[in-house]
Amino acid sequence: MNRNSTLIGLFCLLSILQSNTSSAINYVDNGSSTNYALNTGDSLHIASGTYTGTITSFSTGAKISVAFAAIFQPAAISFPNVRGTIYVYGTFRMSADFRTNTGFRIYNYGVVSINGNTIMSGSTQLWMNSYGALMNLNGDISLTNDNSIVNQGTINFGANLTMTGTTSIINKLNINVAGNYQNNGAVLTNQGKFYVNGAINFNSGLVYNHCRMIAESGIYNTSGQLFNYGFLWSKSSPGTGALVNSGTITNGPGSVILAISLNNTGTINGGGYMHFTGVTTTTNSGTTGAAGITADTIRMFDASRSNVLTIYDNQTGTVYPNVKFQAFSGLDSNKAYFGGCSMEMVSQIPLAVNWNHFFVTLNDKTPSLDWSAKADEGTRFEIQRSYDGKNFQTIDLVIANNATGYKYNDLNVNTKSAIVYYRILAVETTGTQKFSETRTVR
Hints:
The protein is mainly β and 442 residues long. Helices cover 6% and strands 48% of the residues. The strands form five sheets. It has a 24-stranded parallel sheet that branches. Strand 47 and strand 48 (433-435) form a beta hairpin. The relative contact order is 0.06.
């Protein structure tokens, strides 16, 4: 009797589960203004055309997918029940504010455009922007609690970006912020290019820069911890190029900080290079370097320094002996890449020319040049000839393609010359130049 009761209970449970499963609805829309209430297990596939209806409910476990060439342009996705998952292979557009809630997910492989403000409420949200994908979030962006963004493509924040709580952003390629960026206790990990047209403000939290971080209107670290293992640049236009620190900045070995002015009332330690062309100040509460024995060396250049006995222009703070004054030129940020840059970023970087071989032989009084080099497509090879080994003249051009080797016959050489010198100048798309070795024929 007990066994039968148990079996009956199991059959009832299976029936309920099957009933719940069978109640899930799979919608296919080819461009309509239909309203959908998507409950747990429901799915909506925008197969073609442009969808312009309203999503009245988007529960946890519900899914929306947007096919390639299709457009998902809802009039609204009704808050607060915005908790499902969206897969974008085509285009997702919102003309109004977009507010999402706990558990929301978006995986973008196409284009996402939000013309209003983006508010990530609740918790455990994930916004994933894949390699080759584009997000244009044109209003103010607010991340709260433990919500996160992972970017492998390009995200354009059209106004201000604010991170609060334990939110996180991992950037592996391009993030552009048109307004100001403010970090209030969150974690930013940058392995690509993080560009801010306004100011960067670290009120608290952690920032790890492994590649390139640039601010047009100053960098202000009030109480945060900034770890720079790449290139950090506070530009002079349209701002003042200010770097103001009352928190902690740790500069990694070989890393670079470039700014106009520096005001340090906090802690700067580690190693690497710091380059300033304006006024630098450290006060009694500010420390630079590390006490005791350390292998780290901070090489700091202040172009405006007048007192050779100090590192800063105005120095009342503590500067330890591992801080050395060293003149060096400011780096070009377009050529400043570091080992911490992501593979997504490295794949965008023009490769430096790497010569494999360069030979010149004589075939029936015609010099024949044969060379191989690793170079980006578009690199210009200038073939140069000299009859005295000092004065070289470019005689022809070869543009790099996907070939691994190149050949050139000099049909216009002066065959009466006893010796002829050849070299090749490689001019990269960035303007960088690199010569091959010089070869001769007699």
